[in-house]
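Per reviewer request, we include the raw input and output of the structure prediction for the construct analysed in the revised manuscript.
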Amino acid sequence: MGYKELGKEISFADLAVSKSLEHNRSLKMMNRINQVVKWRNVEALLREYYEVGTSKEGADAYPPLMLLKCMLLQKWFRIPSDPELENQINDRISFKKFLGLPLDKPSPDHSTFSRFRSRLSKEAMTKLNNEVLQGFEKKGLSINEGIPSGSSHVMCHEPTGHRAVGAHFAVCIQSTQ
């Protein structure tokens, strides 16, 4: 067992949509998040707590950093369930790019998210979340989920669907300075 090799090569699907992605605000926001967080530090911390994929036996596992990023997307975008998270990843180019998942590859199954979450202690999740948030703080930014879209922030992404009757939510990166 090891980790699945994902995103190492450009697929035909990636190439076909590459021009249209130049003006994709959601993708720009996801790229900004990838720039401010030191994912290597997060991954090193994650490997201290998550041992799946380190054995030479069994099928290759999804990289734990990708699964953690899935959990972050679920929190930031208030995705109510693991099956819906799976659907959103399969549907949204910006999510796939953020995760390093080629467009022609499916999302991990919803049960993979559940197993990943159950294998990490609350202490581990707290430390991982703090590490991610430190990346934002060091750049003078914060990330908020569920902010009403009428608020003014440096960079926001508004989902196209409504989360609650009459409410429209946005995930925003805002300057703290």
